[in-house]
């Protein structure tokens, strides 16, 4: 469990002094992202923090390769210009483990993407084989970009299913069976020798949308991933929302059909059991040769009537649940992600219709529903961003 | 509209410099609540804010009667002790307008209750008559406590139904018909001559629970008000959550019965249309002489079978929706408030059963469902607290 203790996220509880220091550091990062290079006096003015606090935060960040310090002058006096590091060699890696694929990305601290690779895997692959493969790809990407392992700040990992924030373990009943009881953080830290942070794919998708998506300015953003599972990542008041347990946005387990299909969570008729890509493929099994999500997307785009109907039915169920979600959270935008996002209006149209029918009218008029523009890269990108966010708020 | 412009809540947008100043001031208040009287140097240390920032905030709060400044010494040097003002005569008033009652409370800045009064009104009373009556009661309470109008920091008001945070107007379709198009803030500011802040009853109930309830330490708390309407107030990450519009927690408009009873929102089969006290009374109309919520509560406590069954059926619907809500937000605690809270386990039992059946198991085990201990006082109390919160974070 030595690896576990390195995980920054395990170190602090909300409301503590540590949490206060984290919030202060987050402010410095926000200011640097917004205005670029600044003197410490500038940062103090912009954040309202004391120069002593700013000095501590800047020292820590410099030591950890997050900012560069350059001598400059300010009002004729000597000062130090603080800048978020970009292409100085420091990178974060993001790994997204999908049902049948694995994506690794390398990202610089200014969020430009250094390199990425996606490979297809057999369905229900062994997670340990996935970890070994991820290491291979990561090694290759580091070599390609001339980056040393020492320059790797950390690795973010996304899996489908909930993560219990209290012990960083996947939650049984929400992850695929072969991932139950797998201690992803320890397994990967053992293999990679760098700190690993783990989160749920939908949560990471929401983080990626705020950085690389078209709606990053939204203070309240819901990222709804529709794939072999269905889940939402929540950005509330500008921050990822994790609730008491980390198990949030589980709209896939809202019941939409009383006594419907059995769900892996133990309930029946859950949105995920009725409207995930798995459920869609199941509905088509007896009348079409379609067996994969890729085939389904292709058939829909070719106008296959049965496939279109399955998308429409699923869209209606999704729209209804998303409508209820919006009546609770009133977000500025709901981003539909996952392998069906490329269908655009074909999916958005039935979703929007059911949404409009169920949500409160005023919330309907102030909430946009859009398709993600990140294809299936959101998870890995968000995982890499998480590394910087965790590092940026590491205890000082 | 002159009165409208005085409303502090209308002044800032999230993410702005104003919002940063608000957050800084909130920290000072938190520190003073937690440790009591402090020097400005102490406050700077505790909050990480600069002494200049602290000095600005303290001056503003002193000017507005929120803190007292007393000369003291610290490490042998002259200093000023800052203390949140308590019984110095400064008060906030809270007014709760219910379906058939009106409650006014006076609260000191340390949240002790100075005075309160509750009167019963005819159903569907004219809001303007309510405003006049509220002024009468408020005048009486100020006299009783020997408080001048000048010492009144402001008045918080709670009504049933959503408030659009963008224009501070009640949202049509969520408020009772006679409250539609009523500009509560302007009407009351005209009558009272002090700043008025308006919020939804469930939101205010959630604020009251964090201060006067038994679960105030929870970072994520849902207050579910079940009365003639049903709505939830959300405390997320320790703060009231308002989303993009202020229309949040609207679980009363989640559909629970396809094509069920028509709801005032325009939809059918909403939780509110099926499980509010109004819906319960409607179900009992033909078989019992029960016509008011008070009679319903009395009948249930006396073991009336029809009344018990109606509570159980409503409880199941409520539990299901609350289960879905918890799978989305994973709160530490859900507090049931409103006129049925006094039923305790008679209501909590069916709610808990349906909740357990619908929520994800791990969230179920980490979420408590309890009855409010504030009777029907939460709304007015929360409204008074809101005055201090708004004042404490007023632009400096």
3D structure, described in words:
- The structure is a homodimer of 396-residue chains.
- By secondary structure, chain A is α/β, with parallel strands linked by helices.
- Chain A folds into 3 domains: 2-84, Orthogonal Bundle (Arc Repressor Mutant, subunit A); 91-205 and 378-392, Nucleotidyltransferase, domain 5; 214-371, Nucleotidyltransferase, domain 5 (2-Layer Sandwich).
- Chain A has helices at 2-6, 17-35, 40-47, 51-63, 127-144, 184-192, 201-212, 271-275, 277-284, 293-301, 305-329, 345-358, 361-365, 378-392; strands at 38-39, 67-74, 77-84, 91-97, 101-107, 113-120, 152-159, 163-164, 169-170, 196-200, 221-226, 230-236, 239-240, 333-337, 368-371.
- In chain A, helix 7 (201-212) crosses helix 14.
- Chain A starts with a helix and ends with a helix.
- The relative contact order of chain A is 0.13.
- At the A-B interface, helix 2, strand 12, helix 11 and helix 13 of A face helix 2, strand 12, helix 11 and helix 13 of B.
- Chains A, B: Residues 23-78 form the HTH marR-type domain.
- Chains A, B: InterPro entries: ATPase_NBD, HTH_MarR-typ, ROK, ROK_cs, WH-like_DNA-bd_sf, WH_DNA-bd_sf.
- Chains A, B: This is ROK family transcriptional regulator.
């Amino acid at each position: 469990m030595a690896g576990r203790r390195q995980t920054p996220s395990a170190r602090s509880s909300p409301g503590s002094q540590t949490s206060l220091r984290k919030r202060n550091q987050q402010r410095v990062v926000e200011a640097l992202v917004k205005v670029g290079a600044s003197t410490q006096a500038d940062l103090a003015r912009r954040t309202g923090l004391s120069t002593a606090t700013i000095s501590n935060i800047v020292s820590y960040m410099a030591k950890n390769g997050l900012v560069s310090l350059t001598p400059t002058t300010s009002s004729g006096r000597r000062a130090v210009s603080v800048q978020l590091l970009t292409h100085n060699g420091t990178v974060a890696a993001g790994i997204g483990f999908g049902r049948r694929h694995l994506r690794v990305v390398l990202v610089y601290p200014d969020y430009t993407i250094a390199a990425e690779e996606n490979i297809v895997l057999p369905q229900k692959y062994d997670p340990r084989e996935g970890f070994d493969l991820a290491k291979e790809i990561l090694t290759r990407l580091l070599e390609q970009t001339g980056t040393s392992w020492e320059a790797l700040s950390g690795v973010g990992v996304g899996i489908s299913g909930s993560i219990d924030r209290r012990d960083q373990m996947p939650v049984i009943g929400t992850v695929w069976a072969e991932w139950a009881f797998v201690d992803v953080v320890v397994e990967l830290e053992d293999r990679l020798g760098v700190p690993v942070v783990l989160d749920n794919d939908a949560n990471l998708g929401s983080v990626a949308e705020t950085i690389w998506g078209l709606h990053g300015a939204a203070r309240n953003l819901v990222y709804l991933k529709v794939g072999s599972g269905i889940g939402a990542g929540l950005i509330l008041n500008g921050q990822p929302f994790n609730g008491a347990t980390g198990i949030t946005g589980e709209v896939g387990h809202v019941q939409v059909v009383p006594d419907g299909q059995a769900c892996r969570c133990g309930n029946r008729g859950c949105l995920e059991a009725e409207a995930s890509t798995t459920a869609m493929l199941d509905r088509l099994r007896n009348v079409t040769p379609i067996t994969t999500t890729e085939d389904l997307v292709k058939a829909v785009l070719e106008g296959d009537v049965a496939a279109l109907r399955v998308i429409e039915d699923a869209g209606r169920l999704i729209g209804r649940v998303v409508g209820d979600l919006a009546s609770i959270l009133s977000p500025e935008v709901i981003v539909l992600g996952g392998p069906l996002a490329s269908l655009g209006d074909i999916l958005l149209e039935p979703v929007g219709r059911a949404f409009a029918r169920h949500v409160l009218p005023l919330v309907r008029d102030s909430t946009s529903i859009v398709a993600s523009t990140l294809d299936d890269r959101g998870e890995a990108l968000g995982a890499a961003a998480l590394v910087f966010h965790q590092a940026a708020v590491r205890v000082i």
